[in-house]
Design a protein that fits this description.
The protein contains ten helices and 20 strands. By secondary structure, it is of the alpha/beta class. The strands form eight sheets. A four-stranded parallel β-sheet has the order 10-9-8-14. It has a three-stranded antiparallel β-sheet with strand order 3-4-5, with no helix packed on it. Helix 3 runs antiparallel to helix 4 (about 70-100) and helix 3 packs across helix 6. The radius of gyration is 23 Å and the shape is globular. About 35% of the residues are buried.
C-alpha cells in the first residue's frame, strides 16, 4: 500500500484478514485527509459554529440565550485533541491489532514490481496506490503570494477574521464559509459557476443561497477572480461579474476550488502506470491500472472524493487484486452530503443527469414550510426534491 488513508487502511485490513503480508508506506501522518485535515476537524468546528449561531439567533419566544466572543484558539485546541484521539483509535491502533508493517518515507516505483523508500526496496505481487489528493491553488495572479489559505490552513486559524472571502462555493467552501460566518466573520462567497453548490439540484442551490444571505453572507456567482494582492495589511481581490469589475477586501482568503491527486514523484511512468492530464491514476471499473500488478483507490483516482468511497474502493481493490472477485465498482445511488446548516443531502441522479442519460423522469418539489415538523422546529428553510423515472 502506498498511502495510509481510508482506502489504504480498508485494503490493508481486508488483505490481512485474508492471510496476506502487508506493508504500508507513508511519508507523513497516518490517517490521510479525513481524520487529519478533512471530515473530522471540519465537522468538529462546524458544530461549534452552529452552537454559537443558535445561541444568538434562535427563533423561540421567552428563551434568553446569548452568544459572546469566540475563543477560536480554544476551539482549535479542542479540535486537535479530538483529531489525535481518533487518529490513534481508528488508524494507529489498527496497525498493531492487525500486525502489518508501516514503512516511513517517500515511495517511488523503480520498476513495474518494485518500490524504493529511502534505502529500502520493496517487492510485491500486488501494489495499491492510495496517496489521496491535496488542495490546489488556481492560477490567479498574486493569489498564493497574498497568503491565501487552503482548507487545511483555514481549519488551523486561531482568530476569527473580520472579513473573509471564500473562493469556491461547493461543499468545502460552503462549509468553511458558513463556519466563519457563524463565528461572526463578514463572509463573501465567490464562484465562477452560475450558482453555488452547482452539482446539486437548482432548487437546493437556491435554498442554500437564501440561508447564507439571510445570515449576512454575500454570494457572488458567475464571478471570476482576475488578480489578488496584499496591501496595507489586507488582501485585495479584483473580480469580474458579468463584465462588471469591482474590488473586494478581506483579512483572509480561503481557496476551495479543487484538489489535485498526489502522484508527483511516485515514479508511475517507470512502473508503466498511466495518469490523466490532472495527474490522477487511470483505473478501469475494477480499479486496475495499466500495470496489471498495480491497483489504485481513493482520491488519487480522481473519482468521487468521499471517505466512504475511498474505503469501498480500497476493499474492492483487494477483492479483485488478491481474492479473484473480478467485480466492478458500483456507484448506483451514491449518497452525497454538504454539512452546511441546514445540511444538503442527496443520492442517485439529479434531474439534469437523468435527462442527459436519456431517462424520462418526473419530479416533485416540497418546500419545508409545508412540513409540520419543520414548522414546529421553526426551521423552514429548505426543500426536498424527488426525481423519479416516469
Amino acid at each position: 500500500m502506498v498511502g495510509a488513508g481510508s482506502a489504504a487502511f480498508a485494503a490493508a485490513i481486508k488483505a490481512s484478514e485474508a492471510g496476506y503480508r502487508v506493508a504500508m508506506v507513508e511519508q507523513g501522518t497516518l490517517g490521510g485527509t479525513c481524520v487529519n485535515v478533512g471530515c473530522v476537524p471540519s465537522k468538529a468546528l462546524l458544530r461549534a459554529g452552529e452552537v454559537a449561531w443558535a445561541a444568538g439567533h434562535h427563533p423561540f419566544s421567552g428563551l434568553a440565550t446569548s452568544s459572546g466572543p469566540v475563543d477560536l484558539a480554544a476551539l482549535v485546541a479542542q479540535k486537535d485533541e479530538l483529531v489525535d484521539a481518533l487518529r490513534r483509535a481508528k488508524y494507529e491502533d489498527l496497525v498493531t491489532a492487525y500486525g502489518w508493517t508501516v514503512v516511513g518515507g517517500h515511495a517511488r516505483f523503480v520498476g513495474p514490481d518494485e518500490l524504493e523508500v529511502g534505502a529500502v526496496r520493496l517487492r510485491a505481487g500486488r501494489f495499491l496506490v492510495a496517496t489521496g489528493a491535496s488542495p490546489v491553488m488556481p492560477p490567479v495572479p498574486g493569489l498564493a503570494e497574498a497568503g491565501a489559505l487552503t482548507s487545511t490552513g483555514a481549519l488551523a486559524l486561531t482568530e476569527v477574521p473580520r472579513r473573509l472571502v471564500v473562493l469556491g462555493a461547493n461543499a468545502v467552501g460552503l462549509e468553511l464559509g458558513q463556519y466563519f460566518l457563524h463565528l461572526g466573520a463578514e463572509v463573501t462567497f465567490v464562484d465562477v459557476a452560475p450558482r453555488i453548490a452547482p452539482f446539486e439540484e437548482p432548487e437546493v442551490s437556491a435554498a442554500v443561497a437564501g440561508v447564507l444571505v439571510s445570515e449576512g453572507a454575500d454570494v457572488s456567482t458567475s464571478t471570476q477572480v482576475l488578480a489578488v494582492r496584499r496591501a496595507g495589511g489586507q488582501i485585495e481581490l479584483e473580480v469580474d461579474t458579468a463584465g462588471h469589475r469591482r474590488r473586494l477586501l478581506a483579512d483572509q482568503v480561503v481557496v476551495a476550488t479543487g484538489r489535485r491527486p498526489n502522484t508527483d514523484g511516485l515514479g508511475l511512468d517507470v512502473a508503466g502506470v498511466e495518469v490523466d492530464r490532472r495527474g490522477a491514476v487511470v483505473v478501469d471499473e475494477r480499479l486496475r491500472t495499466s500495470n496489471p500488478r498495480i491497483f489504485a483507490a481513493g482520491d488519487v483516482t480522481g473519482g468521487p472524493q468521499f471517505v466512504y468511497v475511498s474505503a469501498y474502493q480500497g476493499a474492492l481493490a483487494v477483492d479483485n487484486a488478491l481474492l479473484g472477485a473480478d467485480q466492478a465498482a458500483d456507484y448506483t445511488g451514491l449518497p452525497r452530503v454538504i454539512f452546511t446548516a441546514p445540511q444538503v443531502a442527496g443520492a442517485g441522479m439529479t434531474e439534469a443527469q437523468a435527462r442527459q442519460a436519456g431517462v424520462e423522469v418526473q419530479t416533485a418539489v416540497l418546500s419545508l414550510d409545508a412540513v409540520p415538523r419543520a414548522l414546529v422546529n421553526r426551521a423552514t428553510a429548505g426543500v426536498v426534491k424527488l426525481v423519479a423515472e416516469r
